Amino acid sequence: MILLTIILFLTIMEAIHEGLALRGKNEGSARLGTIAGLVEMVKLTGMVTIILFLIYSDHYDDYLASPWHFWRWLVLQLVVGWLALRYGLFDWIHNICAGLDWKYIGKTKLYDKFLRKLMGKQPPFPFHFWTRIVLLGIGLGLILKL
What we know:
This protein is mainly α and about 150 residues long. The protein has one domain (about 1-145). Helix content is about 80%, strand content about 0%. It has helices at about 1-25, 30-55, 65-100, 110-120, 125-145. Helix 1 packs antiparallel against helix 2, helix 1 runs parallel beside helix 3 (about 65-100) and helix 3 runs antiparallel to helix 5 (about 125-145).
C-alpha cells in the first residue's frame, strides 16, 4: 500500500505540474507557472522523503535477498504496474489541469505521436477510455500485490 501511495503521489503531482505549466504558458499567466513550480517543489521534496523512507524501512528488504526475486519484482511488477498506472491516470489529470479536453491526445511528445500513429488520427473515445480503465486496474493489481 505504501508503494501504491508513492506511485500515485509522483504520477499525480507530475501531471498537475506539467498541466499547470502548459496552461500558464498558453494563457501567458505567470501565476500558473509559479503554482506549477510550487507543485514541482512538493513533488521533489516528496521524492527525497520517499527515498529516505525506503532506505531506512525494513518492509522491502526481502526483495533484495535474491537477485531473481529482485529482478522479477522490479521489472515485471513495479515497472509494468507503474507504466500501466501512468497510462491510466497521467493524460487525464494533465489535460484537466492544462484546460484541455480530458480525452485530448497531443501532437508534440513522442508518446503522443506514437499513440496517434498506432490509432490513426485521434483514437475513438470508447477505445481510449476503456484501455485506460483496464490498464489502471492492471497497474493497481500489480502494485498492490507487492
